[in-house]
Structure formats: C-alpha cells, structure tokens
Amino acid sequence: MIINDSASQVENTSGAIATVAEKRIVYPPANAMSQLRQPLTAGEGAVLDLFMRELPPAWEIYVQPHMNGLRPDFVLLNPKVGIAVFEVKDWDLDAMSYRNEPSSSIGEHTRENVLRAARDGRVFDVWPNPVLQLRRYKEEIHQLYCPRLEQRNGFAVITAGLIFPFAARERVVSLMAPHQTKEERETYCQYSPISGREAISGGLLEQVFPESIRQSSKYMNSDHADDLRGWLMEPDFSVAQRTPLEMDPRQRSLADTRTESGYRRIKGPAGSGKSLVLAARAAKLAGEGKSVLIATFNITLWHYIRDLVARASDRPGWSNGITTLNFHEWCRRTCHEAGAAWSQEYSELFRSVPERPEDPQSRREWRKRWQPVVDRILNVDVPDLASRAVKEPSVTRYDAILIDEGQDYRLPWWTALRRAVRDGGECVLVADATQDVYGTADAWTDNAMVGAGFSGGWVQLETSYRLPDDAMEMARTFATDFLKKASTDLPKSEQGSLALHPCSLRWVQREPETDTTAVCANEILSMMERAGLDGLANADICLLTDDQQAGAEVVRSLRERNIRAVTTFNDRGVESKRLKMGFWMGDARIKVTTLHSFKGWESRLLVVHVSRAFTDEARALIYTGLTRLKRSVQGSHLTVVCTAPELANFGRRWPEQG
Asked: Which domain holds residue 216?
C-alpha cells in the first residue's frame, strides 16, 4: 500500500505525473503498476488517471484487487461514504459484430453465427457479460465481504459501475440496457452508472461515479471498511514477486561460486535462505548458458522455487535452461526418455495396485492393504528403475543438478540423480535435519555419504530471516523438547536486529477425537478480522493440517460461508497431482493444504491443525508447520488448533489461549 503525502508526485500508468493534494491510499503502489500480473490496458490507465486527479483524497483506490478469487478492475473505498466497484472495457464497438441475447453472457452465439461472421470478414467476439459481473461483485461485497452492512439498506453504499473509455455512452447504454433490471436503469441508476469516452476524455468524474460527491452515509463506517480491506489487499507472496532477492554476504558467496569438485552440501534451519541460495545459483548458471535441473520432493514447491529464480534473475527468458521437477516426476520422465522398454517396465510397477476407492470405509481398508505396497514402489522400485534407465544415451543430461529439501531424499535417490549430471558438472544439495518428516535424514550423515561425491563438511547457515522473534523462540522450545535432531540446526535471530516484526501466537487445545471443523473455520474467520484491521490480505491465510479429511471438511465449511479456498485435496481427502500443481501462494483465495505440501513455503497468516504427535515424524512435521510463519512489519499471526494431548503442556506456554 502507498500513502501519497501532501503535494507528492505519483507516476501514473500513462507516464504523466499526477499531483495529489492530500494523503491518499493507493494499492498497489503507483511505481508497481507496470509490474501487475495483468498489465493495465490503455482504458484502465485513463480511468486510473481520472480517479487520481478528481477523486476526493479520502477515497482509497485498489487496482485489480484480490477479492476472494474475483478480480474487478477497480474498487474504491471511503470509510465515511461507501464502496464502488468498476469494470473497464476497452471495446471498440465499430470493430466488432455483436447483438444482445437473453443469456448469461453477451455474445453467446451459435457456431453458425461465428462462422458466418468469419466468412464476412467481421471480428466476432464472445464477451463476458459485464452487467452480470458487476451484479455479482456488488452482491458478494454486501453479503460476504461486508457482513455487518444492513441487510436491506446496505446496497445504498455500494456503487457498481461500467466504463467504456473508447465508446460513446449512448451506444453503450443501448447495448447494456437489455441486461439491466429496471431498478438498475431507472430507480437506482446512480448506483449502477454507465459511462463512455465523453466522461473519461472530459474528466467528468460525476458521470463516471455520481456518489463521489457524497460526504457521508449513515449506513457506512470504518468497521465495514475494515471488513472489506482484507479482501482487497494483494497477497504478500505476489508483492514479493516484484522485488529482487535480498541476500547476506554468505548467501551471495554460495550463490556465486562453486567448489573445486562442483559438489556442495548446505544445511541450515527454517528460514535461513537455503532455497534462496539454490534459486540464485540456478539463475546464475542459466545466465551462463548452462542447463540446470532443480529437483524438489514436493510437487507444490515447484511454483515457489521458480518464483525465487525469477526474482534472482536480471534477464528476460530466465527460465531458458532451467527444468524444475519433483524427484518422482524426474524418475517417470527418465524412464520414458530411456525408451519404450523402460517406459513399459515403469508402467508395470503400478499395474497390480488397484485404484483407491472413494468411500471412507473402503479407502481405510485400501490403505491398510495397499499403502505399504505403494510406498515400496515409490521409495525403492521406481528410484532403482530410474537409476538404471538414466544410463541410456537418450536420457537428458544437465550441467548442474540442485536439490532442495534434501533431508527428505534417500541416499539411493541421490545416487540416481547424480548420473544425470554431465562430466565436470555441478551438484548442490541443501537440507534441514530438524524437518525430517519422512525419517530419512539419518541417510545424510558423513559416514553414510562416503562415496556420494562430496568432500569436506557441510556448509552451515544459521540465521533465520523468516520467523518473528517470538515465533522463533516457541519453535526452538518445541524442537528442544520434542525433536531428536535439534542440537545444531535451530534457527537464530539476526545479530543486533530489533523486534520490528510483531506477531500474535495463539494455541487452541481440544480433547482427542474432537471434531475440529468448526474450530478451524472459526479461527480462520477470526484471522480474517485481524487481517482487515492490520492491513493484511485474507489471501495470505493458510490452514495447514496433518489430516486430509479434516482439511477437506474445513474447505466444505468455508464454502458454505461462500469463502473460496484453493486446496491440494478434494472433498474426499484424496490427494490430486493436478491440484498440487495448481497450488500457488499468489492465488487470491484462502489456502488449505497439508503440512507435508506446505514444506518450503511461508506465510504471515497461519492456522495449523495438529491431530497427532506420537511419532518422531509427526513431531518433525509439527515443527515444520510452526516454522512456516513469515515475519512482517505489518505483523503476522499463528494459531495452532491441537487435539494431541502430548502437546497440551507446551501449548500452555503460548501467549494467547483459545
């Protein structure tokens, strides 16, 4: 968010300079407009210029806000007056064929009409209906994002306007009239304004937004504004994508250099920059024209690593030469590249395993009978096959292979991957033994790694740049009390750093077997309220759980409240590779996933659901969840909902009890 001070100059999208007479909130900042994921059109830029010049300064301007998965072009907010949402259409009505139809979208034409237009040499566009879009925005703002607005009179503070910067208003009104209700056209037309090029070119704000002249409304107040702001703010992850990576001298040295042998192993606690070093090294090597494979364990980590590489690179086409795969996907690709016989052998490994059933009882029986078989196939048989197939000359070789979350790998997996490195190539492995959620970290002892290609000891990173100090202290306490491998890899604060990152830590303990669906859903709703007050984005809220079925129930509960969530599992709790591939922190929805799938990620708004803590791997997984909190000068929040009795005493040490 940017607050423009008195008489400051702000560069607008058309390159002109707008002078703001008093303070105004504009989000994203004016200097970030050119870096929006979907760049502003010429018409949107002209509308933004008009709002910056003519709107009273008390009106906040949000451009392409992340509104629970909806993406209007503009939302305007004044805590004393009201809310406005606008869609801007750069349509040239002289350059296209169109007609009105009584359907859910303008221009929903038959195939014959489209073909006829093509034969006549006419452009024929299928348009989403902007009137229906605006109606949807308005209804959701009233019903969901400002739930404290009056049921009957709340609509009186919400304007939903349509702007055509390059078309005459008279033609636009005629085109849209069949899709508007009588109330929208006549009775309450000031709340559904339609404007054209005359208003934009003439700077006539009162035509674009008639309610802008209002000074106050008895139906609007700061509480409603706080409710809405949480839905308007851009996710922290999206903001971070526009900023270059910041690295300390040690991290920079590791990213810019290689060892004499080309092999390097790095370990460090959560938030110490291991993935950052890996990404920066990949960017440097790719910039030198070398081919790089970044191997992860989790599918969900792909997006995160690629975004880090993009931030580390200063060149266009940064992804050229970089391949990002999780280990088992690399195995599958390797077998397919090796030839038909290898591909057939790969397929045969899974042929005896029946599909996982959908109903819960059958699924439990399937897990008991077949999960050990699947685990052996994935952990032993597939890597062994890939280790042999990679020797085929048709398999892709790389100048460098970089492995993230190496503690999750087994030593034979590393051996298989090494064979895909060209002679004289480079291998980098980073790991954190305290996050040993699969019980594999013992494979990476110095004795076990004899012959693995490394010489010398591990490079140690110690400082955590992720965790707020209070959260770091609780994570250290948990590791000391519950983890076996916590002696050397605990996070440490920056030397001389000040406590500039406030955070709230809340523990909610429930009895075993408690249905925590409502508890988790209510904690998410509570965090949404906090986000609005602190100027944080609801889209940064993440629920992490060790129970897929419980997570699916929370998703269903949120959906009943019309709150959308992006998740890595479906309602039946079955993990889906496709959903994992689509899991991205920049998504405008609330995130719900497993603790396993969130390894490597971070967020400043976390709800962690814990149902078990009786094994070493389960406790390592909990530690991983506690260390996902990202510090922020605006504050961060971590709530743990726990039904594991082993952790009750630990939970009592937390500052806030639920």
From this structure: 2-91+127-232
> What count of other Cβ atoms lies within 10 Å of the Cβ of residue 137?
22
| Closest by CA position to 551, among listed 624, 608, 625, 613 | 608
pLDDT number for residue 111 = 37
Q: Of 90, 128, 106, 88, give the one whose Cα is nearest residue 209.
A: 88
Global pTM reads: 0.69
**How far is Cα 538 from Cα 637, in angstroms, rounded to an integer?**
12
Among candidate residues 491, 281, 498, 310, the one with its CA nearest the CA of residue 400: 281
Instruction: Check if the beta carbon of residue 12 is closer than 8 Å to that of residue 48.
Output: yes
The residue whose two tokens read 């059933």 is 357
Q: Are strands 60-63 and 74-78 parallel, antiparallel or unpaired?
A: antiparallel
Kind plus residue range of the DSSP H or E element containing 365: helix 360-376
40 contacts 74 by C-beta, under 8 angstroms: no
432 and 532, same domain (yes or no): no
pLDDT at 318: 65
Pairwise CA distance, residues 192 & 189, whole Å: 5
Q: Note the pLDDT of residue 574.
A: 40
Helix orientation angle between 249-256 and 274-287, rounded to the nearest 10 degrees: 40
CB of 434 closer than 8 Å to CB of 269: yes
**CA–CA gap between residue 541 and residue 40 (Å, rounded):** 27
Q: What local confidence, expressed as pLDDT, does residue 485 receive?
A: 63
In order, the DSSP letters of 451-476 are: TSS--S--EE--B-SSS-HHHHHHHH
Tokens describing residue 242:
């526009």
At position 525, the amino acid (one-letter code) is L
Dist CA 145 CA 132 (whole Å): 18
Same domain, residue pair 622 and 539: yes
Characterize the bridge pairing of strands 74-78 and 82-88: antiparallel
Regions of the chain with pLDDT less than 70 = 1-22, 35, 37, 69, 96-128, 237-238, 241-242, 316-319, 436-451, 485-488, 495-499, 569-586
Cα separation, 490 vs 374, in Å, equals 34
Say yes or no: 496 and 450 in one domain.
no
Q: Which residue is associated with the tokens 């200097």?
A: 31
No. of helices (H) and no. of strands (E), the chain: 23, 22
Residues 506 and 630 in one domain: yes
Question: What is the model's pLDDT at position 83?
Answer: 96
Residue for token pair 């078990």: 612
Q: Nearest 5°: CA angle at 157, between 192 and 91?
A: 30
Q: How much is the pLDDT for 334?
A: 93
CA distance 651 to 474: 10
Beta-ladder partners of 9: 19
Residue 537's pLDDT is 84
Within a domain: residue 139?
yes
Peptide bond into 28 cis (omega under 30): yes
